[in-house]
Specification:
Blueprint: E1 11-15, E2 19-23, H1 26-47, H2 55-64, H3 85-93, E3 126-127, E4 152-154, E5 157-159, E6 162-163, E7 176-177, E8 185-186
Helix pairs in contact: 1-3
Amino acid sequence: FPTICAKGADVYSVKPPDGYQTMSGTSMACPTTTGTLALVQERYRQLNMGANVRGDLLRAVVANTADDAGRKGLDFQYGYGLLNAEHAVVTFEKRYYAVGSLKAGDPAATQTVAIPAGAKGLRVMLVWNDPASKNQVPYGQKVMINDLDLTVKVGAKSFQPWVLNGTKGHVKDLPERKVDALNNIEQ
């Protein structure tokens, strides 16, 4: 599934040599996304003494702050939703993120999150860069090398991440909360 989406229909764009036109397609969505992410990264640098944002952190923040689109929640058409640069930048400005690392054999890591008064919801996302497998993996077999699992506990209640059903005939199903053993991005 796509991680996020951006507007690609009826985008007002340049027309060589010195004009403008309305265009549609991935040729419009891709430059919108890359240009927007460059600006989000620039804001991160301003906030962090010129340091570049890690790829996994950028992916996490952009996916977790996307505006839901299509079917409710995560889906195969829009992924986590439409790119929302303002929400991503606010996340960096307010430092609504944590970065850490684990080594094989480490105990489960925990992160306590203070929920601001008046909050109407909470989105939590775990993202990591998984190394490429050195082995050829047969179709349908697990490719993930480091399978981390997100669980959010609020009081006595636990929540697992949203997972899509990629089985033929089920790609339009709504996501379910369960253990995700396929993806290195969990919300």
